[in-house]
């Protein structure tokens, strides 16, 4: 009798196990998050399968709910109805037609972010849904609603908004497909109106007819003219990438010192006006680290309109450890012109120099000195070079070569009373817990066009070394040759990761929670 009972128990356990895991392994392989509902009289059992196979055991029963066919279930974060992982599921409870079903701590807690999908229980058969397991098990995978989710499987678009250049391309690629001068706002072109591609160049739109007008929609990395930016983004989508924004999820960059309200506005614009299926807004500092395969480190960004230093630990950004410096490429180009006007070259020739030529001089001839005061005093430490202007004239540079980028380290040379970029980096490091400091300073990542000056990485290292002397930290500066594109490349890398799936803010989440949800969703 005992034998018969134990066999019966084993059989029952096997049957239960079979019932609990409908093709679980297959789903885990795909890294999918799926909700299964089991109909049993009037009770529906909701089972959550985690994404990325995070839980190695059988799915956890989140709660037992009574749900009449035809109800809309809004699965959305924590609620008093949900049972915690490991707890005994609560007995069946009445479930309103649109109520919250939640999860507890740990892995399931992490999943809360993605649980803003809408499922519709249409009938026992879950019309439109796929059945899993045999019919008598009656495990039903419910259909996800909304076209947005079809677009989620596609490669994401990555856009890096810069004060000088806006770069757009596809996740997983090593460089952006389309780079547009942010300052040359393209005119509204007929191609965009008709949703056909035009020939877009860095200077603007090729088929629009009208010339691009000069504006500065981004100042110090912060969007100030939204209309101009929307126009620019339209061009990037339709003419640069040649696709409609509804087709792909979008990762957008955000300057570290941007007011957080900017992110809300970005969500509003992209979900409302561009109808993207999903959005992620990422800090440029974090993306710079990502481009070097790091999530911990010190991001030192020197771009065109602004420079920043940001300490980041395990992907966590400390706002109070973020410092902004208003010395960057635009100001250095202007400074270059001022320095040239004081040089021994023909003043008439210098006054006639185009801005683009001055920028070329800066990029080709300048370097960061390891000993500014010493080199300034000693002529033997100044190495003259000649530069040929586009109209065939020659200009000579000597000390201007290292005087131009020096304001990055001594902003007072541009009448700014901010500390230099190395001191800001040091201050940023002071704001993080002691146990993180070593890891952060050991992964100092340079990014942005203005970090490309020869000698910049070495000077940064020697200045930090002097500031941290005797503290026992090992300073390591990561200066990739393509670091002027590091932010875009980091975004491309991050958005192509499978694990990035739960980082998207989906259209449904936006509709449900509004633009303010960006603060919960993004770091
Ligand atoms: N090789 C180089 N040497 C010095 N400066 C350079 C070099 N290449 C580019 N720059 C400068 O870098 C700036 C552009 O940098 P970047 O593309 O990182 O800026 P951005 O992303 O458009 O702006 P920001 O991030 O500041 O909003 C320009 O001012 C350009 O003159
Ligand atoms: Mg930038």
From TrEMBL:
* The name this protein goes by in its record: Actin-like protein 10
Superkingdom of the source?
Eukaryota
Q: Which InterPro entries match?
A: Actin, ATPase_NBD
Residue numbers spanned by region Disordered = 1-24, 82-103
SUPFAM superfamilies, per database record: Actin-like ATPase domain (SSF53067)
Residue spans making up a coiled coil are none
> In which residue ranges is the amino acid composition biased (Basic residues)?
1-15
Extract the Pfam families matched here: Actin (PF00022)
Homology family: Belongs to the actin family.
